[in-house]
Amino acid sequence: MASSKPTIAFFGATGGSTISCLAPALEAGYRCAALARTPSKLRDLLTQRGVQESTITANLTIISGTATELEPVKQTIQMGEPESGSGTADIIVSGIGGKLLFSNPLSPTLDNPTICQDAMRTIITAVDEVNSSSSGTGKRPLVIALSTTGISDVQRDLPIAMIPMYHWMLKVPHEDKKVMERVILDSAKDVLGGYVIVRPSLLTDGASVGDLSKIRVGVEKSPAVGYTISREDVGRWVFEYLVKDRESQYVGEVVTITI
């Protein structure tokens, strides 16, 4: 692996969008660490995607735990080697999300209504504590966080026809994502080396569009408005345009992506 490649810590790695970024990163030789509640599940998912076992073993460290537990999160951003004194990962990719529950059809909620904000607070605290410790290097990572359209206070970023459905089905997760974004923005200057907040349109499990140039991209003041995008394409876009390009034009931006 070339020394110029950044190290990457992944949270929410078993999710469709995040694993679609992790898999190509491993295959391209990036040194990665991922937090997983069930490490064997993550390995199995990567193998099912065609990632060779030798590649996983060589390039990935999996830490067991959840994204709201400080110590496992610290181990993950330290690439599983806290004793090395190498500090934090260069890039943190977070695709944390909750599971929608429809036990009350009139008011869907999440299995954990504050999971995104709680996880991001834990990640920020972990970065700060590692960098403040005697073994820390003061390295400030770039945080790439997967959020959602439909929460902008600046410009409408979804089709008018989708507004009623978003308001009904996604009210609780949207509030969680909005708070998560504020946590990132509040920490950007003092703790982080930069951020990109990615707001994809409605996620699907469909096949990749193939050619990433077909993905339309906008920023919050001038968003790309569309109906859907596959989780596969979200992860692939993040890898190609954010991970591989640390000087990306989108650093410091809230980015919308859609088909």
From TrEMBL:
<feature type="domain" description="NAD(P)-binding">
    <location>
        <begin position="12"/>
        <end position="242"/>
    </location>
</feature>
<dbReference type="GO" id="GO:0004074">
    <property type="term" value="F:biliverdin reductase [NAD(P)H] activity"/>
</dbReference>
<dbReference type="InterPro" id="IPR051606">
    <property type="entry name" value="Polyketide_Oxido-like"/>
</dbReference>
<dbReference type="InterPro" id="IPR016040">
    <property type="entry name" value="NAD(P)-bd_dom"/>
</dbReference>
<dbReference type="GO" id="GO:0042602">
    <property type="term" value="F:riboflavin reductase (NADPH) activity"/>
</dbReference>
<protein>
    <recommendedName>
        <fullName>NAD(P)-binding domain-containing protein</fullName>
    </recommendedName>
</protein>
<comment type="similarity">
    <text>Belongs to the avfA family.</text>
</comment>
<dbReference type="InterPro" id="IPR036291">
    <property type="entry name" value="NAD(P)-bd_dom_sf"/>
</dbReference>
<dbReference type="Pfam" id="PF13460">
    <property type="entry name" value="NAD_binding_10"/>
</dbReference>
